[in-house]
Amino acid sequence: MKFSEIPAHSSVKSRLKQMVDTGRLPHALLISGPEGTGKLALARALAQYLQCTDRNGGDSCGHCPSCLQHRSLNHADMHYVFPVVKKKSEGLLISNDYLPQWREFLSGRTFASWQDWLNTLDAGNSRPAIYVDEAENILRVANMSTLSSPIKVVLIWLPEKLGPDAANKLLKIIEEPWEDTRFILVSNNASAILPTIFSRTQRINLPRLTAREIESLLVEGYSINPQEAQTLAHVADGNACTALDALDSQGETEEFASLFREVMRKAYSRDVKALREMADKIAATGREKNCRLLEYFTRMARENFIYNLAMPELNRMTPEEENFSRRFSPFIHSGNVEAMVSDMDSAASDIARNANAKIVMFDTLLRLIVHLRKPVIK
Ligand SMILES: [Zn+2]
């Protein structure tokens, strides 16, 4: 990853390059900020720049042996540490055991989200973390001499997932690593990092991308027409991962939007027969899609509630969604929004836990009839 492949953040890039150029890259640097800003990509570009043997024009060259090894995520002196699911029976304990999945996760991806990683790992209900075995391996790596570069890099993605035992083992090495070792930590939530680790790092905070920056990313990188890019950027609220996910699932979102309109109309007119048919049709599309649909319905219930406040800066809707909300939003109010959202949340978790989707879905749609008739709480 070269700096030039990452959009925006020109002042942060200059600062990072300057740290390397002047030999002042801290032993432990923490790059933090909200998801979808390109932190991990910047950390990778920094490591590649540091280890490039032919730096020129303010960037790594992209073709020296070191850069080529970075590109294939195969550099002997570049060590990746990230949250994993420990599977003892399969011999999967630490990040190194998950390198194939890590390469798949990062290949062609500048903006990488936690959800993308969970999907790549096929994590199911487990919560990946950075365990004490990983800390022991980091100590081993830090004590090894370098193999091909004068400096080795340990990149820790999401240090907020380090448990206390693992963190305790790393305190000393992060505070005083060997001269030839640099730690780069990349965090989505710096306030969740254990203070003992946090206090031993120098920090760079990456701001959210602006709507304008996401728009140009979509127009220039994905050939999206400017008007559509503007809508996606608005909905993404500074998170490039959200914008790109929306782009991926655009067809599905339109389908969900049309179902939302139809369900609300049928529920308002108390058309139980139509609701039953719709519940059956929806259930047949599979559990995962049902959960995404319910998540969309929940979001739309909230958006419509907010729409009544007439504070457009708080709304994240596409023009089509807004079109419907103009007349529909008064039906979602203080008297029913909580119950509606809570119903759909429990329906999603019941369906995810293998409950009968037809029954759960029909029950949830029926309850909408009651919710829509509830009075406003004054
Ligand atoms: Zn190079």
CATH class of the largest domain: Alpha Beta
What CATH architecture label of the largest domain applies? 3-Layer(aba) Sandwich
> Percentage of helical residues?
40-55%
Q: Under CATH, the topology of the largest domain is which?
A: Rossmann fold
Q: What form results from the Cα inertia axes? A: elongated
Structural class label:
alpha/beta
Radius of gyration from the CA trace?
24 Å
Number of strands: 5
- Following the backbone from N to C, one meets helices and strands in this order, namely HEHHEHHHEHEHEHHHHHHHHH
Write up this protein.
The chain is α/β, with parallel strands linked by helices and 378 residues long. It folds into 3 domains: 3-207, P-loop containing nucleotide triphosphate hydrolases (Rossmann fold, 3-Layer(aba) Sandwich), CATH 3.40.50; 209-238, no CATH class; 249-373, Zinc Finger, Delta Prime, domain 3. 54% of the residues lie in helices and 7% in strands. The protein has 17 helices and 5 strands. It has a 5-stranded parallel sheet with strand order 2-3-4-1-5, with helices on both faces. Helix 7 links the parallel strand 3 (152-157) and strand 4 (181-187). Helix 4 packs across helix 5 (114-121), helix 13 (272-283) packs antiparallel against helix 17 and helix 16 packs antiparallel against helix 17 (357-373). Bound molecules: zinc ion (ZN). Zinc ion binds next to helix 3.
